[in-house]
Structures
1.
Amino acid sequence: MRKNRLRLVGVLAAFLVAAQIGTGSPAQARPEPPTLGDLAQRHGRYFGSATDNPELVDEPYKALLGSEFDQITPGNGMKWYATEPQQGVFDFSKGDEIVDMARDHHQKVRGHTLVWHSQLPGWLTGREWTAPELRAVLKKHIQTEVRHYRGKIYAWDVVNEAFNEDGTYRETIFYKTLGPGYIADALRWAHEADPRARLYVNDYNVEAVGPKSDAYFRLAKELKAQGVPLHGFGLQAHLALQYGYPTTLEDNLRRFSRLGLDTALTEVDVRMQLPATEEKLAQQADWYQDMTEACLAVRRCVGITVWDYTDKYSWIPAFFPGEGAALPWDEQLRPKPAYFALREALK
């Protein structure tokens, strides 16, 4: 970890450079600096942001979203409650809006998410299903959605948050009714619907080597041995300053790489207990830089996605009262020390 004092000096220098860029006369105008997406591409990676449909009416926000990043993840518009609100009745309008926007800006799209225990429609959770019934419902949902986006989605979070913290299977509607084999089935069905899409399992609190990431490592080995089309492991990387940095992140990425899997940091934010202070923002900047450098150090870590880029639209305050300031831009869309740390890591 870099010392916070050095971080503050570096951030101040970056601010001065940024200020100098805009002070010349038109005859002295300098070219636009490379974006985070541009810098990541130089390493063969992407740098992306999540977004959500209600935010797209905010034109300054949308302009920065379309210019700074080369990858987009729909935060909610592709989840089951949005895409199949009634059984057999599909609505892809929200996902389509984000895919169309991404195409207009030459951004790749990660689909999120096909199978998750949360944000399910009431028709699915409000009754009991036999295993054959639920299996048919799950297959139809996955294949209808993946076929709709065939050729437009770079990668899918196929199964999201399948394990508990101790590495046991989460008791979801799918696990309780279908058993652990639902994960392999979901991957196979998604692959049938779009053989070119990269297919991931995805979870939080798996950044460090530990019981939960060990469970995914065992699962990945089993699936690969069975010939199941699993291509990657997504580490959400929702971090919090008060709980410490996952120092074994790079080692963890490497062991999944050795299985022949891509990895990605898929939902990155670094929250803190409010109020934000210079010291906390400097520590946050260190963490963003360290995560980025860990990804760059592992060849098969393919990219990083922040879970929206501005505190204005962060999910953190609503779910963690008293916490926030988790993203590289503040609520006024001004870059924070974390933004300059990301640039330094990608430079």
2.
Amino acid sequence: MIRIRAGASPFRKRLLALGLPLAWGGAAVTYKLACPVAQQSGLGARTVSSAVFFAVGTGLVLHVRHALLRELREARKVAGAAQSVLLRPLPPRVEGLNVAAAQLSADRGAAIGGDLYEVIATEHGVRVVMGDVRGHGIGAIATAAAVLGSFREAVHDEPELGGVLRRLERALARHLRERARAEHPSAGAEPEHPVAEEFVTVLLLEIGPDGELRGLNCGHPWPYRLSGPRVEPLARADPLPPLGPFPLPPELDTEHCGHLLPGETLFLHTDGAEDARDSRGRFFPLGEVLAQCLRDSVATPQAVLGSVFTALLRHTAGAPQDDVALLVLMNDRQPRHPPGARGTARPATTHPQPTNHL
């Protein structure tokens, strides 16, 4: 018995894919050479021959179209799996925080772009990153992967947010050097300027068990705090420059942003949200939309996320020009009791479900 090795499978698939076109072609050649009608020159014979060859051509076109669509579906499936590993779905609850997140890529057909976010519970508190890589496309996705990979390790190792940020800076610089060597191998082992004008805006937040908020901001929009009927920026301090063009200062002063009290919500976003324009060039009024959510009693993070994305797509006629990522965190913890009282905070879910999709 003849055994086909696993390595021969692509060849067999290719051969099977060619089977139908070869059959169609063989039928056409057989008709032309062997059918008596094909040898005649009358109008009826020519009409029959034209119909035969038209049917053959149509069959070949439909077969090729079907094969291309099948390959496209498989490629999208693989790309979607790879992208979900990079920007993995967040659990709906993290250490007493209700979480909802989603993003929209400006590249048609892409599941993600150059925006990044992550929420991780650590022994130092819940740590959050929201970032935006300059540009979009494959290059931006690779840069986002480098930054996210470093963040997922650093948040557990570094006791201070400043240490996490420096780890992200080193990871970005290393990624840009490797990318420059791959794109310009003649430039030498260590290009002086790895990739010109490449940068990443990064916002780091740390939420302590008592709701204390601390942050470091490198060129990213500050999030909004939704408290009762009020919508206000979490902080107004000038951010540091984005990561990439300039080194971090020797001393990193973490911004103390008060406390996220039970019932309060943080709304994090990339600049693609506030910079989105309508057909008349007007910017998307993100603050007004959030205030309307509060007036309409849209309370849960998932509902806020859906309302903002609906308004954004309506504002841009369904075609935003830049990647947009939104992350909503609501403090759903029970108020702390005096010492000696039993805590009633609910534990995080053991079966997290994706929150990336509206």
